[in-house]
Amino acid sequence: MPPPIVVQVVVDKPLTQGFDYLWDKEMLGSRPEVGSIVEVPFGRSHLIGIVIKVSTHSEYEIEKLKGVTRVAPLPSLDPAALRLMNFASHYYVHALGETIIPTIPQMWKKPEDWEKIPKKLAADKEKKKKKSDPEFTEELIDESHLNQGQKIALEKLRTFSSDEFRAILLQGQTGSGKTAVFLNWLRGILEDTSAQVLLLVPEINLTPQLERRVRAYFPDKSMVVLHSGVSEKVRGIAWYEAMTGKAQIILGTRLAALTPMPNLRAVVVDEEHDPSYKQQDGIRYSARDLAVWRAHDLKIPILLASATPSLETWMAARAGRYEYIRLDQRAQGASLPKVHLVNTRDPQTQFSPGDLEKPKVKSLITKTLANAVSKNLEGKQQSLILINRRGYAPVLSCGACSWLSKCDQCSSYMVLHKAGALGRKSVLSCHHCGLVKIIPNHCPDCGNADLKTLGQGTQKIEDFIEEMWPSARVLRVDTDSSRKSKGAEELFQEIHGGNVDIVVGTQMIAKGHDYQNIGLVAVLDADSRLFSQDFRAAERLFAQLVQVAGRAGRSSKDGEVSGAIYIETQFPEAAVFQFLLRHDVDGFLSFTANERKEAGLPPFAYQALIHAEAKSLDKAIQFLSSLKSHLRAQGLISNGLKVYDPVPKAVMRVAGSERAQLLVESDNRKNLQETLEAIDSYLRSHSQGRISKEGRIRWLIERDPISI
Ligand SMILES: [Zn+2]
Ligand SMILES: [Zn+2]
Known about the structure:
The chain contains 19 helices and 30 strands. By secondary structure, the chain is an alpha/beta fold.
């Protein structure tokens, strides 16, 4: 009798070990391979698993092993993809099965459908053939149209060999034409018709525009789009085409970074500084960092593009660890917008009584800004007004007592949304847990009927703008308006079409879109992000402001460019604003690097957070305190390692759970890795999965957190 075939399989559970199963070659119709996707019996049900080892023996009694029940009609995950998953699992201290299985689209996790899938794929292919080519209206960015700066950048990129690891920072102002440079670079790589390239973008909203552009640029290449906004079926097929090497171009958001691509030859991470590359639940990976690791592992080039690089990437480029290409000339003669810091403490910037036609209206913006908007309207240019808070007002309050619209389930306030945004009625909504309530007619505490709003959100500004400029066409763009009737893409089309004079919205309107006729951009709530417990707040604000400023005066038909950005602030002297005034990205980054170095913060140190969630804050804190005591008792708090005291999270209570965190910091990566592994094994030995046996506390380790 031939020896039995034993396979080790990992499943989507927070378990560090794999499980042995028998492989019946006759029944399954194939030989096992490392990377095969299978169905296995697990407890009383069946689960999807990945084969990670094939052998002829087991530590367990062979007779007692259960058998693999089905194999997916797919090639096995390629060895490089498995190396990436193994690295991610190790680095982020997350079980391997929990790392791999969630990256597989739903369509491939239903074994009962596996038999039907080949038919489905064939039908889809037919459909694609029948679909006529869409019309491309995007201007082609052929190499011959590149300006001098772009040509030099492209030449430099082409000097890098395609079978050697290089991380390259392409730093260029918004509007300098980075996209045209990297698309032309990729064209060279894609001349090899088996080569695959991965193009990562931070947000779903940015994909349609780039998708059109890439399709127009590579009409004969097969391309797939992978992000959470596409249907399960489309995603399933796209993933299949990527993992079988059929798709040459893979365009997607962070989840695409973990897709198997057996012939990957180059990676581009656009807007590499964007916090959206960080996954915020499950395995909290950074898609950018994993992409860099993957490029290193595969010995291929990776291009990181940004106008405002992350401090980490910028320092690596400055130190020569990354290649550094600058693109400082704006395309089509567009010049940088003029930055105006409007000091809201200066009475001269404010309206005086009698200035306004309707004296009852209290202006929500400064007189300086209002005058600029009026002038911009006269000049027939569009204005963008940004406030990073959706809804009408962030809190409702009672003037008679001290009642505030606090959420019952969270330690945050419920935001007032006027009718139309989230439904037909005005409501209070919690942006953390989603609780929605009808607005009370009277104060629930004292019965006072005169409830007032505090602060302002996009809706309130929209109302105010409509009142201030009754003949202007106003459009609000935020996740509420884009969820409601029209998708974000349609709202953007309206702006492009020139059907709008003033756009009020959250930062989502500032990201990546090429607007043609924006004369003025205003930022209303910059100060709210100036002071924060998070040491990265200033870096993020600066990047956003540069991006926002880049929307103004991008290009104009007659070459005459007028663009301005107005920032209302009480603190015009703050470093963030002063560097912005001079458009000095490098100055700001170098200033920030010095600050971080002095404070011993990342990238001069490495951090991790241990999150704990319990019924009460006390329990969560106590859980983390005893973890800290354990680390100390075991002598694990060694040189260079700091374990801080547990603290409540910024939003401490969410949906009835109370949350705390413990910060672990080290000046040495290896040291941090070892400590995290020790923490993981200690917590696991006292838990079932990731919930402590005592006290039912849910815990999670997060490496390289982007907000503290
Ligand atoms: Zn009251
Ligand atoms: Zn809530």
